[in-house]
Each structure stands twice: as structure tokens, then as C-alpha cells.
Amino acid sequence: MKTALMSGASSGIGKAIKEKLKINGYRVFNIGRTDAQITCDLQDSKVLEKKVKELLKTTDIDLLVNCAGIGIFQPHEEISLKKIEELIDVNLKAPILLCNLCLRSLKKTQGHIINISSIEATKHSKFSALYTATKSGLRDFSLCLFEELRKSGVRVTNVNPDITKTAFFDDLQFEPSSEKQSYIDPDNLATNVLEIINSPFVTTDITIRAQKFMIRKR
What we know:
By secondary structure, the chain is an alpha/beta fold. It is 40% helix and 18% strand. The protein has five helices and nine strands, in the order E-H-E-E-H-E-H-E-H-E-E-H-E-E. The longest helix has 29 residues, at 81-109.
């Protein structure tokens, strides 16, 4: 049985990926604050390191999925310093740390890293400077890490999803339109991710888009 370590698997895209993996025979460990086998605040790097190292003493990792993410879309001067640090910690720092902690195990299993970035990593949008910085940073980290790991057999994939119908938008000023062609369903996205994992080739960077661009402002 293969083993996956995930962040952000308690809801949304991460939950959908987790369910697909479990159906396909993976043992999945979710790391996070709620509904997690490994309870940890991703902003607490010391606890994160301790918990992951404890897992790796008895378990080899075949798949690492960094899916935890939060968003804020406001004029930059209106964002508190605390919120700036939170986005950087969760969206960028935590995936980088998890890759660092798991790489020796992933090299042993010739495993796979999946980093869930965002469509915003590929463009420049109003009120998205902070969020885009974290997600484009994750994207570039992924692409560079693949070049570093090619000879080791470890695969690295960065995924840039378009607007996906999840609870991500619950506290934002906008949400996906009700038009079905204007958003991605998390279950369909998870199917795409599973296909990438099972492919004999490496998908290093993929952007999955909705056919139409339509949002609804609150």
C-alpha cells in the first residue's frame, strides 16, 4: 500500500484528492488543524518538523500533496501584517518545509510531489498581489525543484486550478458564478490529479481552466 502525506485534505480540493487516493489504495495522512491524522498548525514550523519526523521514523512517503491554502484579495495597504504572515506561512512556507522534510523518504520511494498553486500564479490581477506572490512563488519553487530532482526519480507537479467551487470563497467578497462552465468541480480536478500521478510521464506544470470567466460579487 502506498502512503500519501497531505496538507489541506479536510475540505475542498484537498478533500476531493484525498478521497480519490483512498479509493485507489493509498493510505492518507492529513496534516492540519482540523479533521487530521496529524494535528498541527502549519504556521508552527517547529511542531510541523517534529510531527513529520515522527511519522517518517516508521513510514515512507510515496506521495506528498501540498494543498492547504488561504486567500485574501484587498488593497495591499489594508491587509494586516498578521494576515500577510499567515498567507506566506500557509501558502508558501509550509509547502517548502514539507518538501524539505519529506525529500529523503521520497527519494527512497522515487515518489511524487503535487503542489496545488493557482491560476493567479500565471497572471496579474487587481487586489491579488499578496496571494499571487505566494502562489507564483510555489509554482517557481516546484519547477526549480523538479530540475533538482530529475536524476533522483522524484517527480514534481505544480497544478494551477482556475476558480473551483469550494468553501475557499466563503469569507471573500466574490464567489463562483452558478453557471456550470464558469468554475471547476473539485471532484473533476481530483480526477485530473490522479491521472497525473498514474501517468508514466511527468507533468511539471498544468493550468486547469473553466471555459467561461464569470464571478458573482457579494
